[in-house]
Amino acid sequence: MNNAAMISTPSPMTQPELTLVPNNSLFTATPEEGRQLAVKMARLTVKLTQPDEERRKQIRANYDNDAMMLIAVSQVVAMEFATIAAANNYWRES
Fold first, then answer.
1. Which of 18, 46, 61, 77 falls between 20 and 30 A from 68, CA-CA?
2. Is the Cβ–Cβ distance between 58 and 49 less than 8 Å?
């Protein structure tokens, strides 16, 4: 199945407003909280891209057993975490 055909574009008229950055902040108390925030932000992006919960459940089977798609998910979370880590200055010198 063509992956492009699986993605629906949310209509601004029907899309419920999502908060893509919870609490409107990237600041976290610990790197672990930052990592959890990164995962949550990645999940919210998927929800925004495919707002229909039933459709998300249907297409989940397409990536559940696809190693390359699971690696891609990890890359998205890593990018989100890098952004959060930079905002929190996690790599500062002690």
1. 18
2. no
Please list, in sequence order, all residues whose beta carbon lies within 8 angstroms of the beta carbon of residue 20, skipping any fewer than 6 positions away: 41, 44, 45, 48
Measure Cα distances from 82 to 34, 78, 88 in Å.
9, 6, 10
Written as six digits, the tokens of 60 are 């989940």
Quick one: pLDDT at residue 64?
A: 87
In the block, tokens 């990890």 appear at 74
Report which of 84, 25, 79, 17 is spatially closest to residue 48, judged by C-alpha positions.
17
> How far is Cα 3 from Cα 45, in angstroms, rounded to an integer?
17
**Alpha carbons within 13 A on the beta-carbon side of 91:** 7
